[in-house]
Request: fold
Amino acid sequence: MKATIAQYYAGDSLLHRLDPRAKLVAVSALAVALFVRDSFAGLAVYAAAAVLAYLLSGVPLVWFWRAFRPLLWLVALTFVAQVVFAPGEPFFSFGFIHLSWRGLELAAFLSLRLVVLVLVGSVLTLTTPSMALTDGLAWLGRPLRRLRVPTDELALMVTIALRFIPTLLVELDTIMRAQRARGADFRRGGLRERTRSLVPVLVPLFVLSFRRADELALAMEARCYRPGAVRTRLHPLRAGWADAALLVAAAIVIAAGLLV
Amino acid sequence: MSPSPDETPPLFDISGLHYRYAGAQADALADLDLKVHEGEFVAVVGANGSGKSTLARLLGGLEKPAAARHALACGHDLLVEDGRMAARRDVGVLFQNPENQLVAQCVEDDVAFGLENLAWPAADIGRRVDEMLARFGLEDLRRREPHMLSGGQKQRTALAGVIAVPRRVLVLDEPTAMLDPVGRDEVLRAVREMRDEGLAIVYITQEMDEAAGADRVVALERGTQAYAGDAGGLFADAALVRRLGLGLPAAGELALALAEQGRGLRDLPLTMDELLVALGYAT
Ligand SMILES: Nc1ncnc2c1ncn2[C@@H]1O[C@H](COP(=O)(O)OP(=O)(O)OP(=O)(O)O)[C@@H](O)[C@H]1O
Ligand SMILES: [Mg+2]
Reply:
């Protein structure tokens, strides 16, 4: 079973080797620019940059496909919305369907923007292990420590949560199969019955999780973990010239997209 | 691997130890004594709920004893907070469920976790992790995610993570109980190697075959010590074995079955080798 969020593709491309902090900053800045800019020309610049990033990542296209599949619905929905609430002068009308050039253009723009956004985000998560991502986020969030936000502890918490998602999915599957073997049916019935049929699944899952949290805390203490203590890392974050180059390149792309 | 009781101070020196869980009616451990010396392999056996895991947690400095005449782990006083923190460094504790001991998203990061907590420099962590991965045959799995590991691989990773922090003694709480036969062999082999290197080990188990090879066996009964001595002495006392809810090693069970068929053996064999010798198939 595969967890679909924060999936990582083990590779050795230039993008894989970049510092997660630089990648996070570049991608967030690009995402903001994508939403600020509302012309096809600007979008084209960002799309070109995203495609270039995809090519540099060395990640097979099928891996991106997994991220895009749920997106298709959103794209379809965007088009439907534009068809129903068509802005501007319609060139074709039938019942409640109105097609206008302005509406189609808007739908295409919104869809393309979404695709570019997901492409850029996927390049980030596919080339960066989630542990490095959380480390990078913790570092970027460091100023918050002045406000007594325990950023390092939060980062570790997120890492552990991500590590257990696949385990939980397997357990959920096991429990559901056990209940099904005893005659439970999770697909039949109205919303109420279906919700009720989930109770015998979720209760054991919660119990398991509480016991797990206890045991995990113990195992962490046994390995000398103390919240708030100074820790080092096996792979400390190390930014170099390539990371500076990435930030400069991102700045140029963003500026170009805003100016064209 | 004979212990040297007189030369060095014991690694564990526990006397009159009590522990009670919050809200419980009775002590989980009561008036317990335990001494473990350098290089010793001590098996701890007992029925479910007899207090074995509680003992493991106390020995590792992970829980505060309710009372004790004295409770020393590697010279650290378990009765005070600082002593327990120091004990956590010298005493390695491995638990039963491998799944619930792995915190990181890949094998090498998990092995590094203890050293990161002790703020070792990155280069030293890297070297130590490589050493551990080689030792437990995990090099090819270093970037593997925990949920993609077999049970035996998970438990070996957990063991590597425990040992990565240089330890003076190990407490293993039923490390093979949740594994299939292959995984069990993997873990047992790793344990045997550490024992051969002279690392002292307290080995908690429900498997009498695993206890039979120990230098010494301690049996717990409702939190108190019901037996301490060599394995032969425990298994020879059929009434005690029954009362403690234990069994015999497979070789012993076979020998009893043979005895019922009129082929009684003089001494109860504890291992298959001993059984073969006793039956005259080997020397
Ligand atoms: N967290 C807890 N809170 C309250 N009581 C507990 C807790 N953990 C264990 N106990 C109780 O303490 C006693 C000893 O439990 P312990 O887990 O140490 O036994 P054990 O010998 O390890 O058993 P097993 O063979 O099942 O692992 C039992 O009566 C148990 O019910
Ligand atoms: Mg136990």
Remarks:
- Residues B 21, 24, 28, 46, 48-54 surround adenosine-5'-triphosphate (ligand 1) (CB under 6 Å).
